[in-house]
Amino acid sequence: MQSIYKGLPELFEYVIGLVERRQKREIQAIMAFHLLSEILTASEYAIVHYFALTLNESFLQNSQHGSPYQKWALFTNENFSKVDQYLKLLTPIIEHFLGPETVLNSHVDGFKKILFLFYRLNNEYACCEVRLDEPLLTISAIGFDCWLDTAKGSIKPTPSGTREFPPIAIKSVISIADRSVLKDLQSEGLIRVEELRVLLTQFATWLEANYVMSDIITVPQKDPFVYKHWMVDGY
Q1: For 151-193, how does the pLDDT look when each residue is reduced to its tens digit (9 = 90+)?
Q2: Does residue 136 sit in helix, strand or coil?
Q3: pTM value surpassing 0.85
């Protein structure tokens, strides 16, 4: 059975592990937590709001958005697109926490590949897209198993004889002409949502144990270099 949000727990595991291994006392760690929280909230909402409706609901009838199916598809796509939007915001977080390693670590190429992975994820991944003209949907799974060792936070070596990395977004097209399929997909998706919640709860416990308010509310100090630059350049 195909599953919506497949690979999202591994993505959470990687991001959380990356933050914890770097142990930077900076607001970016808290930003990572809140961004993962937004992904969790959007994922849960998308899978329970419109997703498993029967199309017989009164509020879907006689709509300016078209047929009951078209209205359902429109709002379902909007809900799932929010998950994708939040996922795209993870790339700057990843880049921030990998940054110093690209200078201090000799395995620069590996870090470049990790960033390349996330840029590809941004361009290729859409957790769930419903077609407006026929009862089909396309779901994406995140293919972390081929790319990363999430426990170690390192990229796996390219298999011998392989010229290109395997796809990061593995897509499947599913017929929903029999709408009972949606209930099965919803059940599987909610399992993933609960896995995300467990990981986020563990991350919150780690943050509470390792951070204090001063790490979060430190006001940036005036940078004399900036003022010197202005004076030299005449700005």
Answers
A1: 665 666 655 555 566 678 889 999 999 999 999 999 999 999 9
A2: strand
A3: no
- For residues 235 and 46, the answer to whether their CB atoms sit within 8 Å is no
Give the three-class secondary structure for 146: helix
Q: Which alpha helices (DSSP H) does the chain contain, by range?
A: 8-22, 27-48, 68-88, 90-104, 108-124, 144-147, 180-210, 213-216, 224-233
Q: What SS3 class is residue 129?
A: strand
Neighbours of 195 (CB within 10 A): 16
C-alpha distances in angstroms, 94 versus 38, 171, 231? 16, 24, 35
* Cα 40 from Cα 56, distance rounded (Å): 29
pLDDT tens-digit series, residues 92-112:
888 877 764 443 443 445 556
The residue to which tokens 């897209």 are assigned: 129
Report d(CA 146, CA 154) in Å as an integer. Answer: 12
Dist CA 131 CA 55 (whole Å) = 15
Query: At which residue do the structure tokens 């144990």 appear?
Result: 209
pLDDT of residue 107: 46
The pLDDT assigned to 103 comes to 39
d(Cα 24, Cα 11) in Å, to the nearest integer? 20
- Whole-number Cα distances in Å, 45 to 4, 70, 76, 190, 203: 13, 19, 10, 10, 21
